[in-house]
Amino acid sequence: DRLGWLLQLGAVIDAAPEDVALVLAWLAARIVARRHPRRRLARLESEVDDLVVAIGLGLAAGLHIRQAVQVVAECASADSDDGEAACSLRSSLARLDRPESLAEVLHAWSRSIEGAADEVVAVIVESERRGTPLAVALRRLGDDRRRARHLEALEAARRAPVAMLLPLVACVLPAFVLLTVVPVVVSALGSVRTGP
């Protein structure tokens, strides 16, 4: 893959300006395409966190885990803005009528949303297997996941000034020089040529 990039770079150096613009557009599209799966996974994880809070509320209200998950899935279907994770949970729960355990259904749900719910499923399955209180474990997991998302957002905020540096230098600085320095230089050259 690196050899391909080097060949592409070599082709750009010998290419016409139109071709350079085309290659730069292609590179930008490739960068955006690489970021898309990460954004989708982050969105799915955020949706799963919301579902965890709702399941925790159902458990705190006295529902069994199976009932809480079904109620959350039904409520998500009533919501017009339900996300991909909720839709996938709803379709996975349709399999609960068959002789499958809740653990199998939740594992299938997590796989259908690219593993965004692996931690949640592990906590639910472990709690169901050991008989430990699930509401406390889900609350703790939700807090940990929210804290992790908060730290990721802070890290992204720290990287933002560095990412803005290139557009600033490439776009704003030349315009600043053109509007402030060039007129002074032109007037100074004009006064040097004409003399006092």
Structure summary:
With 196 residues, the protein is mostly helical. The chain contains seven helices and no strands. Helix 2 crosses helix 3, helix 3 packs across helix 4 and helix 4 runs antiparallel to helix 5.
The structure class reads: mainly alpha
Major sheet: none
Radius of gyration: 28 Å
Summarize the helix and strand pattern as letters: HHHHHHH
Shape: elongated
Q: Span between N and C termini?
A: 64 Å
* Number of helices in the DSSP assignment: 7
What's the β-strand tally?
0
Average of the residue pLDDT scores: 79
Q: How large is the share of residues in beta strands?
A: under 5%
- Helical content, roughly? over 70%
Question: What are the low-pLDDT stretches, counting only 5+ consecutive residues below 50?
Answer: none
Question: What features would you describe in this structure?
Answer:
By secondary structure, this protein is mainly alpha-helical. The protein is built from 7 helices and no strands. Helix 3 packs across helix 4 and helix 4 runs antiparallel to helix 5.
